Amino acid sequence: MARINLRPWREELRADKQRQFIVMLAGALIVAAGLAFLWQTHVQGQIDHQESRNDYIRNAMSDLEQQIAEIEELKERREELLSRMQVIQDLQGQRPVIVRAFDEMVQTLPDGLYYTQLEKSEDSVAIVGMAESNSRISTLMRNFENSDWFSEPNLTNVSAADGQRSGYSRFNLSVQQVVPDADDADAEQEQ
Question: Over the stretch 73-126, which tens digit does the pLDDT of each residue have?
């Protein structure tokens, strides 16, 4: 007797292959989803890493900007302090000059004459005073011309004194203050 297979083996084979295809398709989809997830995780990790580097650079830049601002402020303070120190040094250097100038004014002052007002502006000294006679004023002007500390005496006004001091003349005189060289001033002080 002949063996005849009446089972629908072709449909079963087709159904078997279809199940295998669906399993393989599902496996491929799972693997693809896993790869996509890994790829996205990797890319997101790189983005996060780059953002953290950018944040670090921004923080470092803000710190540097603060340090630059502090340095600029310190430079300004340094310039202010240097200018103050220069002013103080100039004043310290002029202290002996002022004392010496007053001493010279006393030495040039002849008897019978006195100052009522002294006013200094830059290198010029304006003098208002009283004198017993005009010859005393002339002596004062000669003394200023011979002085190492003053020059160019200029008499602007001589008038009779008012009130109590009859016989006295009131005068206005201006002289230029000259600061001699340090060597000349030292030699003169030693004498």
Answer: 999 999 999 999 998 888 777 667 777 877 888 888 888 888 888 888 878 888
Query: Alpha-carbon distance 101 to 9, whole Å?
Result: 135
Tokens of 177: 């203050």
Residue type for position 43: V
Tokens coding 2: 């002949």
**DSSP assignment of 38-90:** HHHHHHHHHHHHHHHHHHHHHHHHHHHHHHHHHHHHHHHHHHHHHHHHHHHHH
The DSSP letter of residue 95 is H
Is-above-0.90 flag for pTM?
no
> Within 13 Å of residue 6, how many CA atoms lie on the same side as its CB?
1
The yes/no answer on whether domain 112-177 falls in CATH 3.40.50.300 is no
Q: What is the pLDDT of residues 133-179, one digit of tens each?
A: 888 888 888 888 888 888 888 888 888 767 655 677 888 888 888 77
